[in-house]
Structure formats: structure tokens, C-alpha cells
Amino acid sequence: MELNKIIKPENLVYKRTPLMTDANLSYCPGCGHGTVHRLIMEVVEEMGIQEDTIAIAPVGCSVLAYDFMDVDCAQAAHGRAPAVATGIKRLWPDKFVFTYQGDGDLAAIGTAETIHACNRGENITIFFVNNGIYGMTGGQMAPTTLEGMKSSTSPYGRNNETMGPPYKITELIAQLQGTYYVTRQAVHKPGPVRKAKKAIRKALEVQRDKKGISFIEFVSNCNSGWKMTPNDSNIWMEENMFPFYPMGDIKVDGELVKSP
User: Which domain holds residue 187?
Assistant: First the structure.
């Protein structure tokens, strides 16, 4: 019997969003980027805003986003996505503009652009994938690398005394008056995926309603950079990343809901 005669529309529990292109994902197996991509595009499809959405991707693993998301995209220099997004949004205030950035890009090279765009309360959305390392550019230590965590530039583990401690840029962002919605999510299991999608929807609705900037951090793994299997990296993430970068909303409707 043909497969299409067995699977009827009313029996489908999942359908791939057409807003993901047919290009094969080039991310490492087990990486969270692909899941975050899919969730964003599912929300864009459900809100019916494909023609009005513009994505900004800088340098790093996030630069590949324009290959996979079927929306208008622009590329920014390393760390400069919030500045580019600011310009585009001010030119086309009715468009949905979001940046898609990694931690080396957003929390290190682009710290100034990130802080000032958030402080101004630009009516954009920032999606931030934190895997605690520079992924594409060689596995170097990032501002988000945990104490004792090994990287290509901290082969014996991060030493807070000589390298400085990691910092929680999402909590820092939440303190700024310009931010309206700030949250931290994950995408490694079905439950967190559902919560992450709800957060994405809320962030884009905040932008639709012209209430200001939303900032969503996704704590993810980098099994290649961490030198682990995908499963082991998810376990390590739960045991080490989540205690330092706890899940949940930090600021909702312009009010802090969680102490930093």
C-alpha cells in the first residue's frame, strides 16, 4: 500500500514547515541550531509574516542561517547584527526584524552593539545561541565558557584568576531599561522545545505590538567543540551549563521576574 494512502492529514502529528528550505543542514549532528531554526520558522509561518520578516546573521555558525530559513536575510560583520537590525527596522518599522547570533559573536565581539541596541529598546528581536565556546572559528574560549571548561585556548580549563570569570550577558541585558522581554530556554528535549517555541512566539508578538526589544538565549551544546558525543554533550550541558545558566523568564512585560 502506498505511504500517502496510510498517512492522512488528520493523522499527522508533525509537519515540516515549508519556511525551512530544502538545503541539507550543515550543522554538526546533535547541534541545537537546526532545532532553533525550525522553531523560529514555524512561528513565522503560524503568524503569517514570512513576507514581512528579515533575519540578520553575522559571522560564526549562525552565518549559515540564510541557507536554511526562507525569509529575507542580510549578513552583518562579526558582532554587528544588532546595529544592522537597528538600521533596517528604522527604515521599515512594520517589518519583523530579528538577529540570530552565537555567544562569541554577541557576548564578545558584539558586546557594544548588543548592549546599546537593548538599552535603546529597539523594536527588534534577538535570538542568542549560547554553547559556551567559539564554534565555527576554532573552539576558542568565549566570555560564556564556564570555569574549568576546556577549549582550544584554555586546554587545561578556564582559570578565573587569570582569564576572568564567565558572565551572564542575558541577566545583564535584563537590567537595561530598554528591554521588554528577556528569557533563557533550551532545545535538547521535547519539553524544553515546546517552551522555547512559546517564547519565540511571545517575542515576535512583542515586536508586532511595538513594545520594544526581546532577547531570547538558547543554551545549547557544541558536541564537536566540546569533543563529546551528542548524547554526552547534552548530559554535560544539563549538569554544568544549566546550573550556571538557569532556564526561564528573567524579564516579562518590562518587569524583572527573576533575580540575577
Answer: 27-256
pTM over 0.70: yes
Q: Nearest Cα to 60, choosing from 107, 28, 102?
A: 102
Residue 131 sits in a domain whose CATH number is 3.40.50.970
Domain count, the chain: 1
Q: Is residue 177, in this structure, part of any structural domain at all?
A: yes
CB 110 within 8 A of CB 84: no
Evaluate whether 33 touches 27 at the Cβ level (below 8 Å): yes
Q: CB-based contacts of 123: which residues, under 8 Å, 6+ apart?
A: 89, 93, 207, 210, 211, 212, 213
Q: What is the pLDDT of residues 90-123, one digit of tens each?
A: 999 999 999 999 998 999 999 999 999 999 999 9
| 33, part of any domain | yes
What are the angstrom distances between the C-alpha of 3 and each of 6, 7, 8, 12, 86? 5, 6, 9, 13, 48
Which is more confidently placed, 10 or 201? 201
Domain contains 18: no
Q: How far apart are CA 237 and CA 24, in angstroms?
A: 26
